[in-house]
Amino acid sequence: WILFESTFITMSKKRVIEFDDPDPDAEPEPEPKVAKVPTKAPMRFSDPVPVPITTVHSVMPPMPKIKDPSEFQAMLDHMKTTKQAPAPKVKLDSQGNLVDMSGKKVELEKNIATLKANQTKKRRTEKPFKLERPPDVRRSSWYDADAATAAPTRRTRELRFLTPGGIVKREQKKRDLQAAREEFKLRKKIRKDIEKTEPAVAAVAVEEEDDDLFEPPQEVEWWDAILIPSQQYDDVFTADGDVDFAKLAPGKITKYEEHPIQVCGPNMPGEMSPMELKLTKKEKKKLRTQARIAREKDKQEKIKLGLIEAPKPRVRVSNMMRVLGSETTADPTKMEKIVRDEMESRRAAHEARNQERKLTPAQHTAKVNRKMQADAENNPTLTVFKIANLSDKKKRFKVNTNATQYKLTGCAIVTDELNLVMIEGGPRPTRKYTHLMLDRIKWDEDDLPGHEKEEDPPKNSCHLVWQGNIAKRAFAGFRVQQFQSATKAQQYLKDSGYLHLWHMASEFKPTSELNV
Q1: What is the dihedral of CA 324, 327, 333, 336, to 10 degrees?
Q2: Which residues pair with 105 in a beta bridge?
Q3: Secondary structure of residue 414 in the 3-state scheme
Q4: Which of 219, 240, 242, 217 is closest to 231 using CA atoms?
Q5: Which of 33, 214, 358, 421 has a beta carbon 3.0–4.6 Å from 385's, enabling a disulfide?
Q6: DSSP, res 309
C-alpha cells in the first residue's frame, strides 16, 4: 500500500480513477470524481525515485473491487494516517564498532564454523541437565500404606579370598580332563583298526580297555558321604534292612538342596564356537567405504586441532597457474621446474613404497603354494579326462609336469584300449589344469595311429568325463602309469577305489558323436 500511495501521488492531475464497468440494466450512477493531487515540490537527488506503475502492479497484491468512491477515499485517508515504524539507526564509531544513536554497542550474531567437539560442549553448557525429584506418591489419594514395601537396598558382599593353590588345581583338572578325552579318542581309533583286522583280539582288548578307563564304583556316594561318618553302608543298615538313624550325622541335614554342576564326559564334544558371519561383496565394499570416510574425517579433525601438519598441495603442471597464482606469473620457468621436481619426488616415493611391500622370491613362492592348496584338504575336487591317444612324449610331459607344479595328486593311465587322466586338488589348481587339458594343449595336431593311409584320418582329442567333490584323496602324488593290458589297469584303479571311473570313461561318448 505504501508503494501504491507513492505511485498514486505521481499520477497526473487529470487522470481519472476507473472503476468496474457499470451494468447496462442498472440505474445510472453519478459521475466519478477526479482525485485532486497537491502540487509537489521540485525533485531532489535525495528524494526516492517514483516506481513505475508496471512494477507496482507486479509487486503489490491485486486491488479489491470498489464500487463506491467514498470507500476508496477512506482507504487513502487511513493509509496517510498510518505510518510504518522507522528502522533503528546505527553508525560506526571511531574504533570501527557498530553502535546505535545512543552510543551503545550493537552485537550481531556470528555464524562461525567450529569443530564438532566445541559445538557439543557449547550445547551441553547451554542446556545443562537438571535432576528433578520424583513426586511423592505417599501424598496421593490412591496410596495404600499397608501395601507399601521397603525400598530395595544393596546387599553388602564380603571379601572372598583365593585359597593358595586353588587356581593351579582347577587348571590341572582341566588338563587331566582334556588328556582323558584325547586318550579316549586314540583308544577308539585303535579299536576300529583292530576290528578290521582281527575281531577276536578286538573283543578282548575292549574288555581290558573298559577295566582301565572306568574306575570301580565308590563305597559311598558323594551325597551320602557327609551323613555317614564311617563311610560304610553296612554300618548304618540293620539286619532287617532298616536304617539306623542313630549312626547318621543329623546335624549335616539342612533345608537346602544341592544341584551338582553338569560336567561333560571325556567322550563328549567341547563347546561349539559361533559360526563366522559371511559378508557379500557389496557389504564388504560398503564397510571399506565407511572406514575410509571415517579415517579421512579423523585426519581432518587432527589437522584442525593442530595435532598433525596439513598435507602440501599436489601441484602439477596442469593446475600450476591456479594453485600458485602470482608466483607463477613472476617467474614461470622457475616455478615449472619446482613443480616438476615435486612431481618426480612423489613418483619416486610411490615406487619406493611399492618396492618395500614387494614380496621376496621365497615369500612369493609360499604365497602361490598357499593359494594352490586353499580348500584343497577340506574339500578336494576329482576330475577325470579321457584322451584318445597319449603316446606323444611332449604332451605326456606337459600333463605330468603341470600336475606336479599345481600340487595335484592322481594318475595318468596309458593302455592300448583307454587313456585316462585323473587329478585331485583344490578348486583353483583344478580350474587351471582343466584349462590346460581342454584349451592350451592342441590335441588335434596329431592323427590317431593306424589311420595314416586314410584321406581324412581322425584327430586326437581330449574330453572331460566327470568332475565333482570327494571326501578325501586316494593318491599321494601324481604319476604316469602305463599298463600292458586293461585288466591290470582296472586292478590298479580298484585298489584306489576308482574302478567305477574306468567303466564310466569306457561308455563315455562326446557330444559330437551322439545321434541327437
Answers
A1: -20
A2: 99
A3: strand
A4: 219
A5: 421
A6: P
Which residues, 6 or more positions from 51, have their beta carbon under 8 angstroms from its beta carbon? 3, 6, 7
Query: Cα(473)–Cα(3) distance, rounded to whole angstroms?
Result: 98
User: Which residues touch 338 (CB under 8 Å, ≥6 apart)?
Assistant: none
Take residue 33 and report the three cell numbers written for it: 470524481
* Helical spans, DSSP H, in 141-280: 166-197, 199-213, 222-225
Whole-angstrom Cα distance, residue 364 to residue 281? 26
Among residues 348, 354, 346, 321, the alpha carbon closest in space to that of 336 is found at 321
Distance from C-alpha of 35 to C-alpha of 18, rounded to nearest angstrom? 11
- Regarding predicted confidence, which is higher, 18 or 106? 106
The CA distance from 27 to 36, in Å, is 27
CA atoms within 13 A on the CB side of 18: 3
Terminal CA-to-CA distance of the chain, rounded, Å? 94
The amino acid at residue 281 is K
Q: In whole angstroms, give the CA distance from residue 293 to residue 297.
A: 6
Q: According to the model, what pLDDT value does residue 294 have?
A: 96
In order of 346, 509, 511, the CA distances from 515 in angstroms are 67, 10, 9
3-state SS, residue 369:
helix
Per-residue cell: 21: 464497468
Distance of CA 477 to the CA centre of its chain: 40
The model's pLDDT over 309-325, given as tens digits with 9 standing for 90+, comes to 998 888 888 888 888 87
**254: three-class secondary structure by DSSP:** coil
Pairing of strands 98-100, 419-425: unpaired
Q: For the whole model, what pTM was predicted?
A: 0.39
Measure Cα distances from 310 to 294, 305, 353, 412 in Å: 17, 11, 21, 65
Distance of alpha carbon 17 from alpha carbon 65, whole angstroms: 12
Q: Which segments within 354-450 are labelled E, that is strand?
A: 381-387, 409-414, 419-425
Contact residues for 228 (Cβ-Cβ < 8 A; gap 6+): 220, 235, 236, 247, 248, 249
Alpha carbon distance 404, 130 (integer Å): 77
CA distances, 368 to each of 361, 363, 364, 372, 406 (Å): 11, 9, 6, 6, 9
Phi-psi group of 497: left, alpha or beta (phi > 0 → left; psi -120 to 50 → alpha; rest → beta): left
State yes or no: pLDDT of 13 exceeds 70. no
How far is Cα 379 from Cα 29, in angstroms, rounded to an integer?
107
* Residues 464, 383 contacting (CB under 8 angstroms): yes
Phi and psi angles of residue 478, each rounded to the nearest 5 degrees, phi first: -115, 130
3-state secondary structure of 425: strand
Whole-Å CA distances, 428 to 30, 280, 379, 420, 441: 105, 20, 12, 21, 19
User: Are 328 and 321 spatial neighbours (Cβ–Cβ below 8 Å)?
Assistant: yes
